Amino acid sequence: MQQHDVVIVGAGLSGIGAAVHLETSCPGKQYTILEARDAIGGTWDLFRYPGIRSDSDMHTLGYDFKPWREAKAIADGPSIRRYVRETASEYGVDRHIQYGRRLKSAAWDTPTACWRLSVENVTSGERETITCNFLLMCSGYYSYQQAYVPEIEGLRDFAGTTVLPQFWPEDLDYGGKRVVVIGSGATAMTVVPSMADKASHVTMVQRSPTYVVSRPDKDAIANFLRRILPEKLAYRMTRFKNTHMQRLIYNRSRVAPDRVRDTLLKEVRGHLGPHYDVDRHFTPRYNPWDQRLCLIPNGDLFDAINRGKVDVVTGEIERITAGGVTMRDGTQVEADVLVLATGLVMELLGGATFEVDGRQVDFPNTVSYRAMMYADVPNMVQTFGYINASWTLRADLTADYVCRVLNHMDKLGVRQVTPRLRPEERNLPRRPWIEDFSAGYMRRVMHLFPKQLGVDPWRNTQNYALDRRALRNDPLEDGALIFGAGELAAAQDNLATESAAVSAG
Q: Which domains are present in the chain?
Protein backbone atom coordinates (compact mmCIF):
# COMPACT_ATOMS: atom_id res chain seq x y z
CA MET A 1 0.00 0.00 0.00
CA GLN A 2 1.35 3.41 -0.99
CA GLN A 3 1.80 6.01 1.74
CA HIS A 4 2.44 9.70 1.07
CA ASP A 5 2.55 12.97 2.95
CA VAL A 6 0.43 14.69 0.28
CA VAL A 7 -1.68 13.38 -2.57
CA ILE A 8 -2.61 15.77 -5.39
CA VAL A 9 -5.59 14.72 -7.50
CA GLY A 10 -5.30 15.97 -11.08
CA ALA A 11 -2.35 16.76 -13.36
CA GLY A 12 -3.87 19.75 -15.11
CA LEU A 13 -2.99 23.42 -14.76
CA SER A 14 -3.86 23.44 -11.04
CA GLY A 15 -2.29 20.11 -10.09
CA ILE A 16 1.04 20.77 -11.77
CA GLY A 17 1.17 24.23 -10.21
CA ALA A 18 0.39 22.83 -6.76
CA ALA A 19 3.17 20.26 -7.13
CA VAL A 20 5.68 22.98 -8.01
CA HIS A 21 4.67 24.95 -4.91
CA LEU A 22 5.27 21.83 -2.81
CA GLU A 23 8.66 21.28 -4.44
CA THR A 24 9.79 24.83 -3.72
CA SER A 25 8.10 25.62 -0.39
CA CYS A 26 7.79 22.19 1.27
CA PRO A 27 10.79 20.28 -0.10
CA GLY A 28 10.62 17.68 2.66
CA LYS A 29 7.11 16.52 1.77
CA GLN A 30 6.75 13.27 -0.14
CA TYR A 31 3.87 13.50 -2.61
CA THR A 32 2.26 11.89 -5.62
CA ILE A 33 -0.15 13.10 -8.31
CA LEU A 34 -3.11 10.93 -9.34
CA GLU A 35 -4.26 11.57 -12.91
CA ALA A 36 -7.21 9.65 -14.35
CA ARG A 37 -6.16 10.26 -17.94
CA ASP A 38 -2.89 9.29 -19.62
CA ALA A 39 -1.52 12.80 -20.16
CA ILE A 40 -0.63 16.07 -18.44
CA GLY A 41 -2.74 19.12 -19.13
CA GLY A 42 -6.29 18.55 -17.91
CA THR A 43 -8.67 20.77 -19.87
CA TRP A 44 -5.94 21.74 -22.30
CA ASP A 45 -5.28 18.13 -23.22
CA LEU A 46 -8.92 16.98 -23.21
CA PHE A 47 -10.40 19.64 -25.50
CA ARG A 48 -9.26 19.38 -29.12
CA TYR A 49 -11.96 21.23 -31.06
CA PRO A 50 -10.97 23.68 -33.83
CA GLY A 51 -9.53 26.92 -32.52
CA ILE A 52 -9.35 25.80 -28.87
CA ARG A 53 -7.77 28.67 -26.94
CA SER A 54 -7.77 30.49 -23.64
CA ASP A 55 -10.46 33.04 -22.86
CA SER A 56 -8.12 34.77 -20.40
CA ASP A 57 -4.73 36.30 -21.05
CA MET A 58 -1.81 33.99 -20.36
CA HIS A 59 -0.07 36.53 -18.14
CA THR A 60 -2.77 35.81 -15.55
CA LEU A 61 -3.76 32.30 -16.63
CA GLY A 62 -0.08 31.37 -16.48
CA TYR A 63 1.64 30.54 -13.21
CA ASP A 64 2.96 33.31 -10.98
CA PHE A 65 6.36 31.56 -10.83
CA LYS A 66 6.83 30.86 -14.56
CA PRO A 67 6.62 33.69 -17.10
CA TRP A 68 4.60 33.24 -20.26
CA ARG A 69 7.12 33.72 -23.06
CA GLU A 70 5.10 33.50 -26.26
CA ALA A 71 4.01 36.59 -28.18
CA LYS A 72 0.31 35.69 -28.12
CA ALA A 73 -1.34 36.42 -24.78
CA ILE A 74 -4.57 34.75 -25.96
CA ALA A 75 -3.01 31.38 -26.60
CA ASP A 76 -4.20 28.29 -28.42
CA GLY A 77 -4.69 24.96 -26.69
CA PRO A 78 -1.49 23.29 -27.93
CA SER A 79 0.60 26.24 -26.67
CA ILE A 80 -0.98 26.06 -23.22
CA ARG A 81 -0.54 22.29 -23.11
CA ARG A 82 3.12 22.76 -24.01
CA TYR A 83 3.50 25.34 -21.22
CA VAL A 84 2.03 23.01 -18.58
CA ARG A 85 4.17 20.08 -19.71
CA GLU A 86 7.28 22.25 -19.80
CA THR A 87 6.56 23.39 -16.24
CA ALA A 88 6.16 19.81 -15.03
CA SER A 89 9.43 18.77 -16.64
CA GLU A 90 11.36 21.85 -15.56
CA TYR A 91 10.53 21.34 -11.87
CA GLY A 92 10.65 17.54 -11.99
CA VAL A 93 7.06 17.05 -10.87
CA ASP A 94 6.28 14.85 -13.87
CA ARG A 95 8.19 12.06 -12.10
CA HIS A 96 5.51 12.03 -9.39
CA ILE A 97 2.51 11.45 -11.66
CA GLN A 98 0.58 8.17 -11.63
CA TYR A 99 -1.49 8.04 -14.81
CA GLY A 100 -4.74 6.13 -15.23
CA ARG A 101 -5.63 6.49 -11.55
CA ARG A 102 -9.05 7.88 -10.59
CA LEU A 103 -10.00 8.74 -7.02
CA LYS A 104 -13.32 7.09 -6.18
CA SER A 105 -13.62 7.70 -2.45
CA ALA A 106 -11.68 9.11 0.49
CA ALA A 107 -12.09 8.34 4.20
CA TRP A 108 -10.44 10.36 6.96
CA ASP A 109 -9.39 8.62 10.18
CA THR A 110 -8.60 10.90 13.11
CA PRO A 111 -6.63 8.40 15.30
CA THR A 112 -4.12 7.81 12.49
CA ALA A 113 -4.44 11.32 10.98
CA CYS A 114 -4.65 10.02 7.46
CA TRP A 115 -6.86 9.77 4.42
CA ARG A 116 -7.50 6.30 3.03
CA LEU A 117 -8.06 6.72 -0.70
CA SER A 118 -9.81 4.16 -2.85
CA VAL A 119 -8.20 4.60 -6.27
CA GLU A 120 -9.38 2.94 -9.47
CA ASN A 121 -7.00 1.70 -12.14
CA VAL A 122 -8.80 3.09 -15.18
CA THR A 123 -7.46 0.39 -17.47
CA SER A 124 -8.14 -2.69 -15.37
CA GLY A 125 -10.95 -1.42 -13.16
CA GLU A 126 -9.15 -2.73 -10.08
CA ARG A 127 -9.02 -0.74 -6.85
CA GLU A 128 -6.02 0.01 -4.67
CA THR A 129 -5.67 1.85 -1.38
CA ILE A 130 -3.37 4.85 -0.99
CA THR A 131 -2.95 6.71 2.28
CA CYS A 132 -1.85 10.29 2.88
CA ASN A 133 -1.89 12.90 5.58
CA PHE A 134 -3.04 15.76 3.35
CA LEU A 135 -5.28 15.71 0.26
CA LEU A 136 -5.15 18.43 -2.38
CA MET A 137 -8.01 18.22 -4.89
CA CYS A 138 -7.06 19.77 -8.24
CA SER A 139 -9.60 17.87 -10.33
CA GLY A 140 -11.28 20.93 -11.85
CA TYR A 141 -14.94 21.82 -11.79
CA TYR A 142 -16.61 19.69 -14.47
CA SER A 143 -17.04 16.07 -15.44
CA TYR A 144 -14.56 14.73 -17.96
CA GLN A 145 -16.85 11.79 -18.70
CA GLN A 146 -19.96 13.67 -19.81
CA ALA A 147 -20.98 16.96 -21.39
CA TYR A 148 -24.28 18.76 -20.92
CA VAL A 149 -26.80 17.97 -23.65
CA PRO A 150 -30.15 19.74 -23.30
CA GLU A 151 -33.38 17.98 -24.14
CA ILE A 152 -34.09 19.04 -27.71
CA GLU A 153 -36.89 17.29 -29.54
CA GLY A 154 -35.76 15.25 -32.52
CA LEU A 155 -32.05 15.32 -31.67
CA ARG A 156 -31.72 11.66 -32.60
CA ASP A 157 -33.45 12.26 -35.92
CA PHE A 158 -30.55 14.26 -37.32
CA ALA A 159 -29.13 12.43 -40.35
CA GLY A 160 -25.76 14.18 -40.35
CA THR A 161 -22.88 14.10 -37.87
CA THR A 162 -23.48 15.28 -34.29
CA VAL A 163 -20.44 16.41 -32.32
CA LEU A 164 -19.76 17.40 -28.72
CA PRO A 165 -16.76 19.76 -28.38
CA GLN A 166 -15.61 17.91 -25.26
CA PHE A 167 -15.20 14.73 -27.31
CA TRP A 168 -14.15 16.09 -30.67
CA PRO A 169 -13.35 13.32 -33.20
CA GLU A 170 -9.89 13.61 -34.72
CA ASP A 171 -11.12 12.49 -38.15
CA LEU A 172 -14.10 14.83 -38.48
CA ASP A 173 -14.29 16.15 -42.05
CA TYR A 174 -16.43 19.27 -42.32
CA GLY A 175 -14.77 20.79 -45.37
CA GLY A 176 -17.37 22.28 -47.71
CA LYS A 177 -20.23 21.29 -45.40
CA ARG A 178 -22.98 23.26 -43.70
CA VAL A 179 -22.34 23.45 -39.97
CA VAL A 180 -24.73 24.46 -37.21
CA VAL A 181 -23.29 25.23 -33.79
CA ILE A 182 -25.85 25.34 -30.98
CA GLY A 183 -24.67 27.56 -28.15
CA SER A 184 -23.46 31.07 -27.43
CA GLY A 185 -20.73 30.65 -24.82
CA ALA A 186 -16.96 30.69 -25.03
CA THR A 187 -16.79 27.36 -26.87
CA ALA A 188 -19.26 28.42 -29.55
CA MET A 189 -17.53 31.77 -29.99
CA THR A 190 -14.28 29.90 -30.59
CA VAL A 191 -15.39 27.04 -32.79
CA VAL A 192 -17.68 29.04 -35.09
CA PRO A 193 -15.05 31.30 -36.75
CA SER A 194 -12.51 28.47 -36.74
CA MET A 195 -14.79 26.07 -38.60
CA ALA A 196 -15.79 28.81 -41.04
CA ASP A 197 -12.37 28.58 -42.68
CA LYS A 198 -13.19 25.12 -44.12
CA ALA A 199 -16.97 24.76 -43.95
CA SER A 200 -19.19 26.08 -46.71
CA HIS A 201 -21.17 28.00 -44.09
CA VAL A 202 -21.53 28.07 -40.28
CA THR A 203 -24.64 29.11 -38.39
CA MET A 204 -24.54 29.83 -34.68
CA VAL A 205 -27.95 29.03 -33.19
CA GLN A 206 -28.45 30.61 -29.78
CA ARG A 207 -31.38 30.79 -27.43
CA SER A 208 -30.14 34.13 -26.11
CA PRO A 209 -27.11 36.34 -26.78
CA THR A 210 -23.89 36.68 -24.81
CA TYR A 211 -21.76 39.78 -24.27
CA VAL A 212 -18.68 39.68 -26.48
CA VAL A 213 -15.59 41.83 -26.50
CA SER A 214 -12.84 41.90 -29.11
CA ARG A 215 -9.21 42.28 -28.09
CA PRO A 216 -5.88 41.67 -29.87
CA ASP A 217 -4.41 38.25 -29.20
CA LYS A 218 -1.04 39.92 -28.58
CA ASP A 219 -0.43 42.19 -25.60
CA ALA A 220 1.72 44.96 -27.06
CA ILE A 221 2.66 46.35 -23.65
CA ALA A 222 3.68 42.92 -22.34
CA ASN A 223 5.82 42.21 -25.39
CA PHE A 224 7.46 45.65 -25.14
CA LEU A 225 8.23 45.21 -21.43
CA ARG A 226 9.77 41.80 -22.12
CA ARG A 227 12.17 43.37 -24.63
CA ILE A 228 13.46 46.05 -22.27
CA LEU A 229 13.24 44.47 -18.79
CA PRO A 230 14.34 41.25 -17.11
CA GLU A 231 11.86 38.53 -17.92
CA LYS A 232 10.43 37.97 -14.44
CA LEU A 233 10.06 41.69 -13.75
CA ALA A 234 8.28 42.24 -17.05
CA TYR A 235 5.97 39.31 -16.30
CA ARG A 236 5.13 40.62 -12.82
CA MET A 237 4.36 44.06 -14.18
CA THR A 238 2.12 42.66 -16.92
CA ARG A 239 0.37 40.38 -14.43
CA PHE A 240 -0.22 43.36 -12.11
CA LYS A 241 -1.58 45.44 -14.99
CA ASN A 242 -3.95 42.74 -16.21
CA THR A 243 -5.30 41.66 -12.82
CA HIS A 244 -6.10 45.25 -11.95
CA MET A 245 -7.72 45.82 -15.33
CA GLN A 246 -9.87 42.70 -14.88
CA ARG A 247 -10.98 43.89 -11.47
CA LEU A 248 -11.66 47.43 -12.72
CA ILE A 249 -13.92 46.17 -15.51
CA TYR A 250 -15.73 43.77 -13.18
CA ASN A 251 -16.31 46.45 -10.53
CA ARG A 252 -17.49 48.90 -13.16
CA SER A 253 -19.96 46.30 -14.40
CA ARG A 254 -21.36 45.95 -10.88
CA VAL A 255 -21.82 49.68 -10.15
CA ALA A 256 -22.61 51.03 -13.64
CA PRO A 257 -23.94 48.10 -15.70
CA ASP A 258 -25.82 50.30 -18.17
CA ARG A 259 -22.70 52.25 -19.12
CA VAL A 260 -20.65 49.09 -19.51
CA ARG A 261 -23.41 47.54 -21.62
CA ASP A 262 -23.52 50.59 -23.88
CA THR A 263 -19.74 50.50 -24.31
CA LEU A 264 -19.73 46.81 -25.19
CA LEU A 265 -22.59 47.11 -27.68
CA LYS A 266 -21.07 50.20 -29.29
CA GLU A 267 -17.94 48.18 -30.00
CA VAL A 268 -19.99 45.35 -31.54
CA ARG A 269 -21.84 47.81 -33.77
CA GLY A 270 -18.51 49.26 -34.83
CA HIS A 271 -17.43 45.82 -36.05
CA LEU A 272 -20.69 44.74 -37.69
CA GLY A 273 -21.97 48.04 -39.08
CA PRO A 274 -25.23 49.98 -38.71
CA HIS A 275 -27.41 47.50 -40.60
CA TYR A 276 -26.67 44.42 -38.49
CA ASP A 277 -29.30 43.55 -35.87
CA VAL A 278 -27.06 43.84 -32.81
CA ASP A 279 -30.08 44.26 -30.52
CA ARG A 280 -31.34 40.81 -31.46
CA HIS A 281 -28.14 38.82 -31.76
CA PHE A 282 -25.61 40.44 -29.41
CA THR A 283 -27.65 42.14 -26.65
CA PRO A 284 -28.20 39.84 -23.66
CA ARG A 285 -31.12 40.07 -21.26
CA TYR A 286 -28.75 40.25 -18.28
CA ASN A 287 -26.14 42.77 -17.14
CA PRO A 288 -22.44 42.50 -18.02
CA TRP A 289 -20.60 40.01 -15.80
CA ASP A 290 -23.79 38.35 -14.58
CA GLN A 291 -22.13 35.76 -16.81
CA ARG A 292 -18.58 35.71 -18.17
CA LEU A 293 -17.82 37.97 -21.09
CA CYS A 294 -16.81 36.12 -24.26
CA LEU A 295 -13.50 37.17 -25.71
CA ILE A 296 -13.16 37.45 -29.49
CA PRO A 297 -9.44 37.64 -30.39
CA ASN A 298 -8.79 40.08 -33.23
CA GLY A 299 -12.53 40.25 -33.94
CA ASP A 300 -12.43 36.88 -35.72
CA LEU A 301 -16.14 36.13 -35.25
CA PHE A 302 -17.14 39.55 -36.53
CA ASP A 303 -14.86 39.17 -39.55
CA ALA A 304 -16.42 35.80 -40.39
CA ILE A 305 -19.90 37.34 -40.19
CA ASN A 306 -18.87 40.26 -42.41
CA ARG A 307 -17.41 37.84 -44.98
CA GLY A 308 -20.71 36.00 -45.18
CA LYS A 309 -19.21 32.77 -43.85
CA VAL A 310 -21.15 32.92 -40.58
CA ASP A 311 -24.61 33.97 -39.56
CA VAL A 312 -26.39 34.01 -36.21
CA VAL A 313 -29.91 32.76 -35.54
CA THR A 314 -31.44 33.74 -32.20
CA GLY A 315 -34.53 32.16 -30.71
CA GLU A 316 -36.06 29.00 -29.34
CA ILE A 317 -35.47 25.70 -31.13
CA GLU A 318 -38.67 23.87 -32.05
CA ARG A 319 -36.98 20.61 -32.98
CA ILE A 320 -34.08 18.96 -34.75
CA THR A 321 -34.93 17.38 -38.08
CA ALA A 322 -33.03 14.99 -40.33
CA GLY A 323 -31.69 17.94 -42.29
CA GLY A 324 -31.06 20.57 -39.63
CA VAL A 325 -32.84 22.78 -37.11
CA THR A 326 -36.38 24.15 -37.06
CA MET A 327 -36.82 27.27 -34.96
CA ARG A 328 -40.03 28.09 -33.12
CA ASP A 329 -40.66 31.04 -35.47
CA GLY A 330 -40.50 28.67 -38.45
CA THR A 331 -36.96 29.45 -39.56
CA GLN A 332 -35.23 26.44 -41.11
CA VAL A 333 -31.46 26.05 -40.68
CA GLU A 334 -29.94 23.34 -42.85
CA ALA A 335 -26.97 21.36 -41.57
CA ASP A 336 -24.64 18.51 -42.43
CA VAL A 337 -22.78 18.76 -39.12
CA LEU A 338 -24.39 19.65 -35.79
CA VAL A 339 -22.10 20.87 -32.97
CA LEU A 340 -23.64 20.92 -29.49
CA ALA A 341 -21.65 23.62 -27.69
CA THR A 342 -24.22 23.51 -24.92
CA GLY A 343 -22.04 23.47 -21.85
CA LEU A 344 -20.38 21.42 -19.17
CA VAL A 345 -21.63 19.22 -16.35
CA MET A 346 -20.23 20.71 -13.16
CA GLU A 347 -18.85 18.19 -10.70
CA LEU A 348 -17.69 18.72 -7.13
CA LEU A 349 -14.35 17.19 -6.16
CA GLY A 350 -14.07 15.00 -9.23
CA GLY A 351 -17.19 13.04 -8.31
CA ALA A 352 -15.48 11.24 -5.43
CA THR A 353 -17.26 10.57 -2.12
CA PHE A 354 -15.80 11.56 1.26
CA GLU A 355 -16.13 10.31 4.82
CA VAL A 356 -14.79 11.73 8.08
CA ASP A 357 -14.50 9.22 10.91
CA GLY A 358 -17.15 6.99 9.39
CA ARG A 359 -19.66 9.74 8.55
CA GLN A 360 -20.26 10.71 4.92
CA VAL A 361 -19.62 14.38 4.22
CA ASP A 362 -22.81 16.17 3.15
CA PHE A 363 -21.26 18.91 1.04
CA PRO A 364 -24.49 20.80 0.17
CA ASN A 365 -24.94 21.43 3.91
CA THR A 366 -21.28 22.20 4.54
CA VAL A 367 -19.76 25.68 4.73
CA SER A 368 -16.57 26.43 2.84
CA TYR A 369 -13.56 28.02 4.53
CA ARG A 370 -11.76 30.62 2.38
CA ALA A 371 -13.41 28.96 -0.65
CA MET A 372 -10.95 26.05 -0.43
CA MET A 373 -11.57 24.00 2.75
CA TYR A 374 -14.76 22.74 4.38
CA ALA A 375 -16.04 22.98 7.93
CA ASP A 376 -15.26 19.82 9.94
CA VAL A 377 -13.34 18.21 7.06
CA PRO A 378 -9.67 17.87 8.10
CA ASN A 379 -6.57 18.10 5.92
CA MET A 380 -8.30 18.60 2.59
CA VAL A 381 -8.16 21.55 0.18
CA GLN A 382 -9.95 22.02 -3.11
CA THR A 383 -8.62 24.30 -5.85
CA PHE A 384 -11.38 26.26 -7.58
CA GLY A 385 -10.59 29.34 -9.66
CA TYR A 386 -12.39 32.63 -10.06
CA ILE A 387 -15.45 33.16 -12.22
CA ASN A 388 -14.55 36.79 -12.89
CA ALA A 389 -10.82 36.42 -13.47
CA SER A 390 -8.27 33.84 -14.54
CA TRP A 391 -8.47 30.41 -12.91
CA THR A 392 -4.77 30.21 -12.08
CA LEU A 393 -4.77 33.40 -10.02
CA ARG A 394 -6.64 31.58 -7.28
CA ALA A 395 -4.93 28.24 -7.98
CA ASP A 396 -1.56 29.83 -7.20
CA LEU A 397 -2.91 31.48 -4.04
CA THR A 398 -4.45 28.19 -2.91
CA ALA A 399 -1.26 26.20 -3.43
CA ASP A 400 0.80 28.85 -1.64
CA TYR A 401 -1.66 28.78 1.28
CA VAL A 402 -1.48 24.99 1.49
CA CYS A 403 2.28 25.23 1.85
CA ARG A 404 1.89 27.80 4.63
CA VAL A 405 -0.48 25.47 6.44
CA LEU A 406 1.73 22.40 6.02
CA ASN A 407 4.80 24.22 7.28
CA HIS A 408 2.85 25.59 10.24
CA MET A 409 1.64 22.09 11.12
CA ASP A 410 5.24 20.90 11.11
CA LYS A 411 6.25 23.82 13.30
CA LEU A 412 3.53 22.98 15.83
CA GLY A 413 4.20 19.24 15.60
CA VAL A 414 0.57 18.40 14.71
CA ARG A 415 -0.87 16.23 11.95
CA GLN A 416 -4.42 17.60 11.68
CA VAL A 417 -5.91 20.94 10.69
CA THR A 418 -9.66 21.47 10.56
CA PRO A 419 -11.86 24.48 9.80
CA ARG A 420 -14.66 24.81 12.32
CA LEU A 421 -17.52 27.28 12.62
CA ARG A 422 -17.31 29.37 15.77
CA PRO A 423 -20.39 29.50 18.03
CA GLU A 424 -21.47 32.93 16.79
CA GLU A 425 -21.28 31.75 13.15
CA ARG A 426 -23.26 28.52 13.32
CA ASN A 427 -26.70 30.12 12.90
CA LEU A 428 -25.77 32.73 10.31
CA PRO A 429 -27.72 32.55 7.02
CA ARG A 430 -26.23 30.14 4.48
CA ARG A 431 -25.73 31.56 1.02
CA PRO A 432 -24.96 29.90 -2.34
CA TRP A 433 -21.28 29.24 -2.81
CA ILE A 434 -21.26 31.38 -5.96
CA GLU A 435 -23.65 34.34 -6.12
CA ASP A 436 -24.62 36.93 -8.73
CA PHE A 437 -23.69 34.64 -11.61
CA SER A 438 -26.52 33.44 -13.82
CA ALA A 439 -24.72 31.00 -16.14
CA GLY A 440 -26.87 27.94 -16.68
CA TYR A 441 -24.13 25.40 -16.04
CA MET A 442 -23.76 26.78 -12.52
CA ARG A 443 -27.44 27.35 -11.77
CA ARG A 444 -28.19 23.72 -12.60
CA VAL A 445 -25.98 22.34 -9.82
CA MET A 446 -25.26 25.10 -7.31
CA HIS A 447 -27.67 23.50 -4.82
CA LEU A 448 -25.26 20.53 -4.69
CA PHE A 449 -22.28 22.69 -3.74
CA PRO A 450 -21.18 23.87 -0.28
CA LYS A 451 -22.48 27.12 1.12
CA GLN A 452 -20.79 30.34 2.20
CA LEU A 453 -21.51 32.85 4.94
CA GLY A 454 -21.52 36.62 4.79
CA VAL A 455 -18.48 36.93 7.09
CA ASP A 456 -14.82 36.02 6.77
CA PRO A 457 -13.24 33.52 6.63
CA TRP A 458 -16.34 31.79 5.27
CA ARG A 459 -16.90 34.03 2.23
CA ASN A 460 -16.19 33.13 -1.39
CA THR A 461 -15.10 36.62 -2.31
CA GLN A 462 -14.26 36.38 -6.04
CA ASN A 463 -11.79 39.17 -5.32
CA TYR A 464 -8.17 38.40 -6.18
CA ALA A 465 -6.65 41.46 -4.52
CA LEU A 466 -8.52 40.81 -1.27
CA ASP A 467 -7.70 37.09 -1.31
CA ARG A 468 -4.05 37.76 -2.09
CA ARG A 469 -3.66 39.94 1.00
CA ALA A 470 -5.63 37.60 3.25
CA LEU A 471 -4.14 34.27 2.18
CA ARG A 472 -0.57 35.53 2.28
CA ASN A 473 -0.71 37.75 5.37
CA ASP A 474 -3.58 36.84 7.72
CA PRO A 475 -2.66 34.71 10.75
CA LEU A 476 -3.29 31.03 10.13
CA GLU A 477 -4.60 30.52 13.65
CA ASP A 478 -7.70 32.68 13.31
CA GLY A 479 -10.00 30.83 15.71
CA ALA A 480 -11.73 29.02 12.85
CA LEU A 481 -8.80 26.99 11.52
CA ILE A 482 -7.89 24.60 14.32
CA PHE A 483 -4.50 22.90 14.38
CA GLY A 484 -4.35 19.53 16.12
CA ALA A 485 -6.95 16.84 16.86
CA GLY A 486 -6.85 17.56 20.59
CA GLU A 487 -7.57 21.23 20.06
CA LEU A 488 -10.48 20.32 17.79
CA ALA A 489 -11.93 18.05 20.47
CA ALA A 490 -11.62 20.86 23.00
CA ALA A 491 -13.39 23.24 20.63
CA GLN A 492 -16.19 20.69 20.18
CA ASP A 493 -16.56 20.34 23.94
CA ASN A 494 -16.68 24.11 24.37
CA LEU A 495 -19.32 24.38 21.65
CA ALA A 496 -21.41 21.66 23.28
CA THR A 497 -21.15 23.44 26.65
CA GLU A 498 -22.18 26.79 25.15
CA SER A 499 -25.07 25.17 23.28
CA ALA A 500 -26.29 23.52 26.48
CA ALA A 501 -26.09 26.85 28.31
CA VAL A 502 -28.10 28.59 25.59
CA SER A 503 -30.72 25.83 25.70
CA ALA A 504 -30.94 26.05 29.49
CA GLY A 505 -31.23 29.80 29.32
A: 2-144+345-502 (3.50.50.60), 149-216+272-342 (3.50.50.60)
